Amino acid sequence: MMKKPSLATFSTNPKHSSKYGVRSISLPTRSHPTTVQIEEELTKLKSWETSSSSKSETICFGLSGLTRLYKCIEELLKLPLTQQALSQHKNEKWVDELLDSPLRFLDLLSKTRDETLLLKGKVEELQSVLRRRKVGDSDMENHVAEYWSLRRKMRKECTKSLLLLKQIDGSIGSSYFSLDLNNHLCAIVKVLIEASLMTSSILQSLVVFLSSPILRSKVNKWSLVSRLMQKGVFGCDNQHENNINELEKVDFGVSSLMMENLSKDAEVEKIQSAHGRLQALVVAIEGIENGLECLFKRLINTRVSFLNIISP
């Protein structure tokens, strides 16, 4: 009788392969077209990983890729061969651990979605104030102070989320490599592990975006100019704008509103610039919100499909 291959048979690199900690796992021989689709989606996401940044557009691409990946995983879980293989191990600890992974991500997604909604609301308040007020008005200064306060709170929460994600990332797949499973079940486990690793990576990228470093709320004109030049915001062309993300651009725009002794023309220019940066951030947040919502639904469906297989 041929010996069943174990997970350890396949190439696995336990070391992190990127700054967000995704490990490389080679899928075993494909037994169904769904597995081919899953591997294609994973390849696209690995391409995202190599070019990942803290820009919202890149993060949205990652979130939409995860949504497509989990849709394919749902199809994999619907296969009779998959259901039969998993049902035979439904009382084992490693199955419970696989089932727990989507739940942990769902909790974090819900928390992150709430934070983005708060940020969007505060940004829209700033937009409203800027339409009515001028630089130096006390009402605007109060709203700017509230914006900085929210940013500081978000950074603290993001630090907690990042630590949690790193803990999740470190625990994913650690207890499965001594298992003796057949080819198809081995493929299922590996797909779920790699999907979890990639989910952790992309969510870490999102958390890094939301926890972008904050400028001090009160800076003098030349101190602010110096920091803008260090970031590459001042330059001969728009290429320098690509050095920072939408949230950092708003920070710079809001900070510039607090500069004193500006001419009237300079004040008008600063208000217009801040308007544009705030609107760009609103659009970015809406894209992230949509990506989080779609991924949230897919993770729920994946967990339900898994539960339907292992439930009595």
TrEMBL record:
InterPro entries: BPS1_pln. It comes from the Eukaryota. GO terms for biological process: root development; shoot system development. This is DUF241 domain protein. It comes from Pisum sativum (Garden pea).
